[in-house]
Amino acid sequence: MSEQVVGILGGGQLGRMLAASASLLNQKVIILDTGEHGPAKQIIAPTEPHLAHLDGSFADPVKIRELASKVDVLTVEIEHVDAAALEEVRLATKGKVLAIHPSPSTIQIIQDKFRQKQHLSSHGLPVSEFVEVESSVDSISEAAQKLGLPLMLKSRTLAYDGRGNFVVRNLRQVEEAIAALGGRPLYAEKWVPFSNEIAIMVVRTVDGEVQSYPVVETVHKDNVCHLVLAPLRSRDPSLPSKATSIAENAIKSFTGAGVFGVELFLMDDGKIFINEIAPRPHNSGHYTIEACETSQYENHLRAILSLPLGSTALKVPSAAMLNLIGQSSSMGEITKTKDVALTIPGASVHLYGKSECRKGRKMGHITIVADSDAQLRSRLRTLLQSLPENYC
Ligand code: ATP
Ligand code: MG
Ligand code: MG
User: Fold this and answer.
1) Which of 76, 160, 166, 223 has the most ligand 1 atoms within 8 A of CB, as the residue to mutate?
2) How does pLDDT run across 274-288, given as a tens digit for each residue?
3) Helix axes 83-92, 61-70, angle to 10 degrees
4) Model-level pTM greater than 0.90?
5) Ligand 2 centre and the CA of 76: distance in Å?
6) ipTM of predicted complex
C-alpha cells in the first residue's frame, strides 16, 4: 500500500469503518478526536511513536495543524471541522505535498446548509425553495408567507440526525422553534411532501471523475435514518439513472476527492430534489461493506490516495441496513437485537465500541444480504420483530 500517512479529522463510527478498511490495506492512519479510545482509535494501534493518534478536537486549529504536520493526506469523517483552519493549513503548505480531501472550500460550503443550497441552486441543481431568516418572529413569519406552512426551519450549521430542524406548522410555534434551535444561524426550507427518501454515494477522484453506487431507499424515523434498502425498487425504470445523474452533477460541482453522500427527495410525480450532501462516507452507504464489490470506505481511501477506484456495483441481489439506535442509557435492547441478528443468515453485526449508550445515539448497525427481495424481507422481518415497541 502507499507509504503515505492519512490523517482523519473525527474518530466516530465512520472513522472506525474507514480505519478498518485502511488496516486491511496496511494503510497508516492517524486519527484526531477527543479521548484516547474512541470508536476509530480502537481499530488501528500506532506502530511507531510518530503515528500516535491525537487527543483533541477536530474543530481546534492548533490540533488540526499538528495533525497536518504528521501526515501526507488529510480527510474528514465529519463536516463540522474547522474548515478555515484546514484552508490555512492548505495555504501554509503550498509547495509541500499535503493533500486535503475533499477540499477545504468544499467542506466550507457544505457545512453551512444555506450556502450549500445556494451553491446547488446556482449550479442548476433541483432543490426546494429556501430563504435566509433572522431568529425573529417577524422574519420567520415573512418566510412562511413566501414558502407556506408547514415549513422546515433549519440550523445552517452543526446539524445532524435532525437535531437542528424544527417543523413550523403554524405561526404560534415560531417562538418555540427559535428557542429550540437556540441562537444558531437559521434558514427556512419549503416543506417537501416527498413520497420516498433516496440516497446515492458518489466517489470523486482527484481528477474530478465520478462513479456512483446504486440508488438506495432510506427510511427515516423521527428525522433519523432507520433503514436502508438496496437497490431502490421503482416502477419507473428511468428513475435510478435520473437520480444518479443529479447526484453526479452535484458532486462534479465541488472540488476535492473522496466519497460523498447525496440525500434526495422523491416526489409522487417523479420529480427529484436534493435534500443535502455529506462530504464523506455516509450512513446510507454502510451497506456497501457487505453488499458491494468495494465498500464506500475503501473507495474513499482509494480516491484520496489517487489509487484505482474499485467497482461500486452490488454483488448481491438485495440488501438492507438497520441502524441500532440507543433506546436508553443501557445497551440491553441493542444486545437483544444483536443476538437475534446472529441467528439470521446473511446478517452482519457492526457495533461501534462507543463508551456510553444514550437514547437516540447511533450505537451500531446490521446489514442483511439476500438472494432475492423475498428472502431479504423474510430475514429483515425477523430482525425488525426483535426491536422494542416505539423503537426509534
Ligand atoms: P443527517 O445529517 O443526519 O442526515 P440533518 O440533521 O442534516 O440529518 P436533514 O437531512 O436536513 O437533517 O433532515 C432530516 C430529515 O428531515 C430528512 O431526512 C427528511 O426526512 C426531513 N426533512 C428535511 N428537510 C425537509 C423538507 N424541506 N421537507 C420535508 N421534510 C424534510
Ligand atoms: Mg446532515
Ligand atoms: Mg440528512
Assistant:
1) 223
2) 999 999 999 999 999
3) 40
4) yes
5) 15
6) 0.99
